[in-house]
Amino acid sequence: MFKTQKLVSFALLxxxxxxxxxxxxxxxxxxxxxxxxMWNESEGQALVIQQWIDEFExxxxxxxxxxxxxxxxxxxxxxxALAGGTVIDIVDQDADQIAGGLMQEGFGLPLNAYLxxxxxxxxxxxxxxxxxxxLELFAMDGETYLLPYIYNTVQFWYDKRVFEEVGIEVxxxxxxxxxxxxxxxxAGYAPIAAEGNEPGYxxxxxxxxxxxxxxxxxxxxxxxDHTGEMWRDPAYLESSRMLRELWxxxxxxxxxxxxxWPQGQNTLAFGQAAQSLVGSWLPIELSLQVDPGWVWxxxxxxxxxxxxxxxxxxxxxxxxxxIVKDTAHPDEAAEFLRFIMTKENQQLMADQALVxxxxxxxxxxxxxxxxxxxxxxxxxxxxxxxxxxxRYPEFLTTVLWINYADLWQGKITPEEFSEHMATQSAEYWAxxx
Amino acid sequence: MIEQAVDVRQSARPRRRARxxxxxxxxxxxxxxGAWSLFTxxxxxxxxxxSLKSNREVFREPWNLPTQLQFENYQxxxxxxxxxxxxxxxxxxxxxxxxxxxxxxxxxxxxxARAKFRGRNLLTVIYIAGIGIPxxxxxxxxxxxxxxxxxxxxxxxxILVYISLSIPFTVFILTGFFSTLPADLExxxxxxGCNDFQVFRHVMLPLASPGILTAAIFNFxxxxxxxxxxxxxxxxxxxxxxxLGLYSLKNSMTYTGDWAGLFAGVVLxxxxxxxLFILLSxxxxxxxxxxxxx
Amino acid sequence: xxxxxxxxALFLLPASALYFFFFLVPTFSAFRYSLxxxxxxxxxxxxxxxxNYVELFSDRLxxxxxxxTVTILLAGGVIIFGLAFVMTMMISSGIRGRKLFRxxxxxxxxxxxxxxxxxWGYIYTPQFGLLGAFLGKxxxxxxxxxxxxxxxxxxxxxxVAIIWIEVGFYLVLLLAGVDKIPEDFYEAxxxxxxxxxxxxxxxxxxxxxxxxxxxxxxxxxxxxKIFEFPFSFTGLEPNVNSYTAAVYMYILGFGQRQPIYxxxxxxxxxxxxxxxxxxxxxxxxxxxxxxQLQY
Lengths: 433, 294, 295
Description:
The complex is a heterotrimer of chains A (433), B (294) and C (295).
Chain A: H1 2-26, E1 31-37, H2 44-59, E2 63-69, H3 74-83, E3 90-94, H4 95-103, H5 112-116, E4 118-119, E5 122-125, E6 146-159, H6 160-166, H7 174-186, E7 190-192, H8 199-214, H9 218-224, H10 234-248, H11 263-269, E8 273-279, H12 282-285, E9 296-299, E10 313-323, H13 330-340, H14 343-352, H15 369-376, E11 380-382, H16 388-391, H17 393-408, H18 414-431
Parallel strand pairs in A: 1-2, 1-3, 7-8, 10-11
Antiparallel strand pairs in A: 3-10, 4-5, 6-8, 6-9, 6-10
Helix pairs in contact in A: 2-14, 8-10, 8-17, 10-18, 17-18
Chain B: H1 2-10, H2 15-50, H3 55-60, H4 72-80, H5 83-114, H6 120-131, H7 139-148, H8 155-180, H9 183-191, H10 196-207, H11 209-224, H12 228-233, H13 242-255, H14 259-292
Helix pairs in contact in B: 4-14, 5-8, 5-11, 5-13, 6-8, 8-11, 9-10, 11-14, 13-14
Chain C: H1 5-33, E1 36-38, E2 45-47, H2 51-57, H3 60-91, H4 98-106, H5 113-123, H6 130-137, H7 141-144, H8 154-179, H9 183-191, H10 196-224, H11 228-233, H12 245-253, H13 263-294
Antiparallel strand pairs in C: 1-2
Helix pairs in contact in C: 3-8, 3-10, 3-12, 4-8, 8-10, 10-13, 12-13
């Protein structure tokens, strides 16, 4: 009886393997896939991806994957190369950036059918192994084009030893946060390290604050209001005042206004400052700078009293693969993406590159366990600048960032910020028609 | 000039005193030029020093000497970028481009300077107008064009762009040179039985060699450090010239917080050009001045 | 000597063909592209007439970046030529180490620009940078924390670095010009009882004028397309406050991180740059002519 069961399950497994490998095995013609990557060759993530590629090629002898390590300007290079007739099958990039670029313009291969196939190492549809919200974040008209494989949370990062030394706990509300900052200041720390002159970073504050006050999605809705009137919502005045208060209280030191990346985060590494609101990549970026005994902790942007958002709404900056629609080998490319989503392969990325990954149940490295917890328990996730980055990059660059920088750097008042945004949004949208 | 004039007027006075006066008058010059030069040398020297520090020292003790020399910074920089390959790409791209620029521009400049034909002035003006066209204007049209010819993302395409965009300025410099050469040399060569091509090849071209060298140096310096066109026309890391390679190195090193490694990479890229400059500075500088000062 | 028609044609053809196809044709297509709304290389072009130019007028970033370019051109130019002039006078006053000074001041011109931006980014880092730490060491602690890269200062900090790089090139030009002035001009003037100032005014300046003009034309063309320094000066992306028109064009057309891709609009900025060049050349020509009338 027992033996039969074993036999049957073995047979089933064989069938499963046959079905899985079927399309590949059937056509033994050599297949060459070209993958253009956002990583530089020597970065930890690139090393892991190369290992994935090697193992995938070993398991599929007829497939070769040629990786081109472009660095962060990958998408720009891909676009120009595609226009020049270069064949590219797979690309990867910050999900926000690629969603606003290649994906929105229809260069992506629809992945829904592939996501309905079973995962390679678990008998559930592939789509069910992803951490909550990650696949859906950039879905367009019900179709998925991006397969996220690295998960960064935006949280306040700090050295747990400092919190112990000062005698404070992780704050859950804004008031607790401010009280902590008082204690940190008394203890001689600058409470917050920030890149004062790096709009991409300082916008984390605006996006999180509005998400806490009005819930995720409100900022995006505001940007989409072509009359600009939504910028006059009291929530913007309130959030602007609360953010400016951080400067006025000295929680963010005045010199911060002159910090461009990575000068602000270095003050955290050097033990001058105590907390920094930034992606969970920070522990890696600072690994060569911090004390050996450093103990990383991370906590979500605190809740605001009376706000509609929850402290468990998490800002997620994902990195994703996309298959180029015109690829000659969609099945093989998709098979590669299925392959990288096994527990084993995801664990490899988490362990070797020390980053968060998108598969459920794969423990992240020690420095970012708090990020993993936030990702697991997220009530909802929202992307960079609440999705504005992906959908309205030009508005973000030419209207939102310059006005927000003025507010952040104290050149205009909260009232002026709302006013400028309202009028300039209306002008911007009028000029786009 | 002013100082010289003063000297001569004072030459009647006792020499020793004149020398003192002269030294005092020149003191501001020594201080100013000395401070400027010192700043340049100190900052560049500082990068070399930082490239041997550990990452924790780079920021925390910027003015201290490294406690222990970290030569492995250089190993990391070398490993993480293809600096060797990038260097060879630059040699190939810039070398071929400069040769072809000269081979194409010199004959054209010669004709524009010395031949008589209808439309010569107009053609000269059209060439010179090209000097003023800002390259950024061409980013997109030129890219679209080369994409249509399958020449983007290739060294050949970049060489073609470099040649085409360097023609106006090179023709401009060389026309100036050819037009200053004396006419009787041409005439005597003709009397000796040279045809017009031979006159160009055996008489005028050798005479213009200082000018051609100038044009070569101008183009070489410009193209060796060229970045913006390479950024647009080269996508594949394998094809990158050194300027792009260093940019990519800068990115990859900063994302991992490896500043010491970055500085090591900067030294690796700076050192050959500085060495070359030390060897050739007289030549380079006189080349530049020859082109523009007649 | 007569040069045959065949040789003329043969010598002109390669240069003219390349120049025509890969320089003039794209220049003219740029005008055409600037009249289209074109969202990316793979996508359709829609004719919008002068809409892109109308939009430029209300684009704050366009004015900011164009303002920066023009400031580099004018303020940078005045300072660079002023410094180069002073240094030329100093170096040609018969001091020792003349060649050494000239070579060191010229040195930044041969170093890869990304290496220089890395260096300057580090010089300006508040507190921990070269400058900050130095000021801290000599006791100027409040200056040590000065935000050199803050929104109001970053452009000027960049301009200082650009001047440091460029001044050597124009110094070399001017020095060569001064060397070419025959010493007997001054002798004769001295015999006529001319003062130093008169000699400077009547001999040095006029005889340097050609060199100066060439130098200014070279600088204008160079300044208008300045891209590398602001592009790679600061951390993750070029900082908005130090955008030049060329950088903004690149961001709009090719994108650094922002997926904007407005090729037609971006090209319209290129056309505006060309207008600036034409304006500058006209002004320079006028300046030159007036001086020539004086002697």
